[in-house]
Design goal:
about 60 residues; globular; single chain; 2 strands; alpha+beta; two-stranded parallel ribbon
């Protein structure tokens, strides 16, 4: 278990959570770029998790109706 790596994903349509530039590395700056919520910032900072923003998939089967 020591070699496991954590990755957090955020879909790009969430415009209020972690809205800093992709080059930002400071956990504090990432946190304060959010509006009204913090999300799982502790995982990124305490567990050295990677963070990725993924684009919304346009295929109809990926959307809730």
């Amino acid at each position: 278990m020591e070699n496991l790596k954590i990755a957090l994903l955020k879909q790009d349509i969430y415009q209020d959570l972690y809205v800093c530039p992709v080059s930002e590395k400071s956990a504090a700056n990432i946190l304060f770029s959010s509006m009204m919520r913090v999300g799982p910032i502790g995982l990124m900072s305490d567990l050295n998790a990677d963070f990725y923003i993924v684009k919304e998939e346009p295929a109809p089967e990926t959307h809730n109706i």
